[in-house]
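Summary for the funding panel

The consortium committed to producing paired sequence-structure records for every protein in the target list. Below we show the first two records in order, beginning with the earlier of the two.
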Amino acid sequence: MRFFSPLFALILLCACSGAPHVVRPEVTGAPPAHRLYLVSHGWHTGLVVPAAALNRALPALAERFGRPAFYEIGWGDKDFYRARARTAGLALQALFWSTGAVIHVVAVPDSPYESFPRSNILDTCVSDAELAALTRFVSNSFSRDRSGQIVALAAGLYGDGQFYDGAGRFCILNTCNKWTAKGLRSAGHDVSPTFQLTAGSVVDYLADNRRACAQPAERIGPAAREAPPAR
């Protein structure tokens, strides 16, 4: 029993430290007018969101990246996510005694289908209020310094990317994929993030709950046109 007590305490602490938290969107009944994308890279998912909305909320991103069409945003463990060679030791550390979190931001100049041709991509659409709530959720996922500025760390893993210091703490019950589910929840999707701990679970949810846009798609390439229509 003594062996399990520290492990139980770690899991309980993890369950109580679920930041960043879902931002509830205002219910307005407005049509979905903004296209979002879920990108699955295998073990990890991220959200591709309109860059203009995030640039308004986080001017430091505009200073760093300019004005791309979208940003791919991912959240994860500070050591495991940034590692070029991911080991079992780093994975265990992330799950049970993470040292903190990071945000990974990648500029997507046009179509995510062109930027991530080998990844599994699903699209959905949200209203103005839902995009505003998602923007607040993403903004809250960044840690701030004493002057209130987001904190840039190392260069990103691919493309025009950048790591930033993140809010919250990664753990076995608060994973990168749960963060993605919380983002979808903030964007008005009726998904429970509690058990969305794997990439497959988040992808499966959105595959069955995609929304059509009330406007044509943004500039997209051939791969995007071949994607199945939203339900």
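The next record, for a separate protein in the list, is shown here:
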Amino acid sequence: MSRSSNEVSKHNSERLILRGQTLFLSKPVVMGVLNVTPDSFSDGGKFNTITVAVERIEEMQEEGATIIDIGGESTRPGAPAVSAEEEIDRVLPVLEQALGNFPNLFFSVDTTKFEVARRALEAGAHIINDISGLQKESRIAGLCADFKAGYILMHSQGNPQTMQDNPTYNDVIADITTFLNDQLAVAADHGLTENIILDPGFGFGKTLNHNLTIATHLEKFLSLGFPILTGASRKSMIGTVLGNRNVEGRLFGTVAFHYDNLLKGAKIIRVHDVRAAADSVSIYNALHSYKFTITKSDT
């Protein structure tokens, strides 16, 4: 019998224990995107060899990333699906080398496939980032529970092939809240009641107005009791607001959008441009977490 979300244990949103390592979220952190794919919308083909991918991870660590999210299948609108075997072949060699090279980072694998998630967790991944929110493979929740790993529960409508074909909602905030509550109950049925991160899924089956409404009311999802991740990096919604700006021209819009997310309670921002995001988090922390003594030389 399915349990209601009220029965799901609310984990301390400021501290997650992932595979024995503590991810502190009392201050927001940056998740750097690493697509080891030939066709991702922003960086497809740039990092799909082990050497180049590992070099990029080192660069993102130096720029201020806390988490690296490795993806082996593009989720851009209209992207073709790939097999589990191909996804594993793309992701696992990079993940295995990165885990040995960068012990202070947390590694997430962006997948909706049970077998990919299993192999990634066996290799040592700390988090599974599931854009389907357990709609494709509810067993992934049980895997994460067994490995004491993190799980990112994202809302999406449709799939990458169809998600932007006239997405509709009765009430986008209420509908997403209901979905997340329902899927939290599914996770609990599989033994996963902690180490969960929620993502409202900007751009995944949403119009521009849907995305802006979600951003405006992001703090409403805090009532679900889990940390919030947002990922709007370089997405078409940013380009549309900026007058149909291309991907390369969306950096400043992304930083501004994510900063507003931080003000509304987001704890993790998922980005391509790590240094810019980390700088914005540092400014946020200075303004909201600490008191500084201003001297004449500082002014």
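Regarding this second record: The mean pLDDT is 90. The CA atoms of residues 239 and 245 lie 4 Å apart.
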